[in-house]
Amino acid sequence: MRYVLHADMDAFYASVEQLDNPKFRGEPVVVGGSETSRGVVAAASYEAREYGIRSAMPMATAIRLCPRVIRITPRFPRYREVSNQVMRIFSELTEIVEPLSLDEAYMDISKESLDAFNLEDIGSSLKSSVKERTGLAITVGGGTSKTVAKIASQMAKPDGLLLIRPGYEQSFLNPLDVGLLWGVGPKTESILKQYGIDKIGDLADRDDDWAYRILGRRGKELRLRALGQDYSEVSTSRETKSVSVETTLTEDIIDPAILRSELRDLSDKLALRISRNGLRFKTVSLKLRLSDFTTFTRQQTLNYNTDNADTIFELSMGLLEKEMKPGLEFRLLGVSVSGFQESGQLVLFSM
Amino acid sequence: MKLSCLQENLNRGLALVSRAVATRTTLPITQNVLIETDKSMLKLSATNLELAVTTWVGAQIEQEGSVTIPARLLTDFVGSLPNDKIELEQTSRPAGIHFKCARFEAQINGTESSEFPPIPSVEDGVAALIDPQILRTAISRVALAAATEETRPVLTGIKLEISGQQFTMAGADGFRLAVYKGPLIEPIEEDIEAIVPAKTLSEVQRLLGDQEEPAKLMVTPSRSQIMIHLNNIEVVSQLIQGTFPNYSQLIPQDYTSRAVVDLQEFTRATRASSIFARDGGGIIRLHIAPGSDSSPGKISVASRAEESGDNHGDIDASVEGEESKIAFSARYLTEVLGVLGRGEIALETTTASSPGVLKPIGSEDYVHVVMPMFVQW
């Protein structure tokens, strides 16, 4: 029987800061750029969340909600170090660990959990190992699929443990909001709600054809997840699928010359990063956020692979120019490249 | 119009012009052949509006005239006739031609010749004379490097530069570049520069057949058309407008490794590897190793198929410089070796991700630059 754990480090960046600086413990702490540099909240401690502060919120809003909040500039090298420590503890439990980000991972413990009666032991000893060796609290969810494990950990936060026994997937999922399903964003959720689908169980009750008609190929997949039937494997080697860089501008920008020079910097930074890893891309995507927070991406694909900075710049600039309209102000620019290949034709000159 | 000619001659003439007949068109008359009397000859013309081909067939003219006839029907019908005398008589209602050959008779309906698009003539302008054998070689060696996709139209053309006693043709599709330089029969007074569709030149190469008379190239003063005059054939083509890449700066001047090999051996090893490369991303890997006192240098030509296996073949090479590894597209390598024929060639390389250069030994007339593929070695 397959069994998957999803472990999530609670308020990770903020917790690391509270761990390293005892005076921050018990205080509302947020990690992120300053409000004057138009920063956003990357992580908020549970104390800060009580004020309604959430991650991805503009820093200025967070400070308005809680004027005495302690803001800390992110220290990514330190977070990476702590993350590595935690991941090492995970890999002592099972060799099949799939890190999703610095603070999240899936683990396949099918082999370790042959005797399903010791599931609770596995989960609680994992939590206590992490607590003892790093001082951090984690939440662990478990189930027979990634979907169930991840939703379980979301439900159990913070410092929780929720393991769904095999056979109980549907009774666990059915009463939950459909928006909790991986792959159901705000847009899909509003489509589903129009059809009276509020809970995961409502989606599970519909048939495949219906799901296909409403949401296309993705619909069938979502319905299977709603049934707790998600067969995707915990994969240890995650290929790099895309590499991205972005910048939140210091103020909303209309001036094409400034956008151009920002894009030039991003392109150079991105090219450096991928060429260090020996990657060559085929697709360039441009991410734009307007002053009203509308966010969208545009992309273009070449008929060859390259790691050239000028190509990133020219393609992304071309995409940006199509979007520039009088009066539109941009607050964020991002560029990402994808479509990496192990081999491909190099170009003599760009066409 | 009333005339007679030999089936063999008419058949050959129709075969020459038929390649210029439009296939997909919004102007149906371009699917016809224009048939007209021209002094004591029968003149056949076809055009797809980009390319026009005209040829002349010996005939006995009794009465002048002109009409257009569906090309496909006419070519197929004439091709099916015995090699005998054909009598053609123009009919006016409906416009067409009545054919008589041995005991066969046919009426083919067509359209008035006045509706046929005018075929531009290039009367004035500087003319360059090129030996037909040299022109054929030049076209065959550069046309392969031209782009076939229309994403950047200038790259579907061949850059032609004629100056002094020499002409240069260059083709480049972004991945490779081929440059051929050849002599003119007599010096030209004024320079010519044009981008000629590679398709036009490939037709010219075909039409040249085994003719021995020099080919005459002329460009209109407006630089919008080129006329290439062959023996008994006139080709007029639109030129491509735009700026061709400055290719001379794309030709590497240095190398760190230079291998000279027998072309036929290299071709054989490359063909064998291409078979495996079909299921392996089309990649051919070359390992160039200098020789020592006791053993000659070599190029190892290798490829891997995804699941079915791999191969490698060694060929002797005199290698100057360093040991090197480089991977090429099987198609690009096969194509360039295919147009080089016999003799020896030099392969010059610098790094696995910088362009490789192929040059025939013993002549300075041709350079082929090909960009490698990046691979996991």
Helix segment tally of chain A: 13
Helix share bin of chain A: 25-40%
Structural category of chain B is: alpha+beta
Q: So what's the overall shape of chain A? A: globular
* Major sheet description of chain A: 5 strands, mixed
- What do we call the CATH homologous superfamily of the largest domain in chain B? DNA Polymerase III, subunit A, domain 2
Rounded radius of gyration of chain B (Å): 25 Å
User: Strand fraction band of chain B?
Assistant: 35-45%
Count of strand segments of chain A: 13
Protein described:
- The complex is a heterodimer of chains A (351) and B (377).
- Chain A has helices at residues 12-20, 46-49, 59-65, 76-93, 119-134, 146-156, 169-173, 186-194, 200-205, 208-215, 217-226, 256-276, 309-323; strands at residues 4-9, 29-32, 41-44, 70-72, 97-101, 104-108, 138-143, 161-163, 242-253, 281-290, 295-306, 330-338, 344-345.
- Chain A is α+β, with helices and mostly antiparallel strands.
- Among the domains of chain A are: 13-76, MutS, DNA mismatch repair protein, domain I, CATH 3.40.1170.60; 171-226, DNA polymerase, domain 1, CATH 1.10.150; 239-347, 2-Layer Sandwich (Dna Ligase, domain 1).
- In chain A, the strands form three sheets. A five-stranded mixed β-sheet of chain A has the order 5-6-1-7-8.
- In chain A, helix 4 (76-93) runs antiparallel to helix 5 (119-134) and helix 10 packs across helix 11.
- The termini of chain A are far apart.
- Chain B has three domains: 2-115, DNA Polymerase III, Chain A, domain 2 (Roll); 126-248, DNA Polymerase III, subunit A, domain 2 (DNA Polymerase III, Chain A, domain 2, Roll), CATH 3.10.150.10; 251-370, Roll (DNA Polymerase III, Chain A, domain 2), CATH 3.10.150.10.
- Chain B is built from six helices and 27 strands.
- The mean pLDDT of chain B is 93.
- Chain B has helices spanning 7-18, 71-80, 132-143, 198-208, 263-277, 330-340, and strands spanning 2-6, 32-38, 41-47, 51-58, 60-63, 66-70, 85-92, 95-101, 104-109, 111-112, 127-130, 157-163, 166-172, 176-183, 192-197, 215-219, 225-230, 233-238, 257-262, 283-289, 297-305, 309-321, 324-329, 344-349, 356-360, 366-370, 373-374.
- Chain B has 377 residues and is of the alpha+beta class.
- In chain B, the strands form three sheets. In chain B, strands 15-12-13-14-26-25-24-19-22-21-20-23 form a twelve-stranded antiparallel β-sheet. Chain B has a nine-stranded antiparallel β-sheet with strand order 10-6-2-3-4-18-17-16-11. In chain B, strands 5-1-7-8-9 form a five-stranded antiparallel β-sheet.
- The termini of chain B are far apart.
- The chains are: A alpha+beta (351), B alpha+beta (377).
- The A-B interface holds A 280, 303-305, 342-351 and B 147, 149, 151-152, 155, 172-177, 245, 250, 281, 283, 327, 329, 353, 355, 369-376.
- Strand 13 (344-345) of chain A pairs antiparallel with strand 27 (373-374) of chain B.
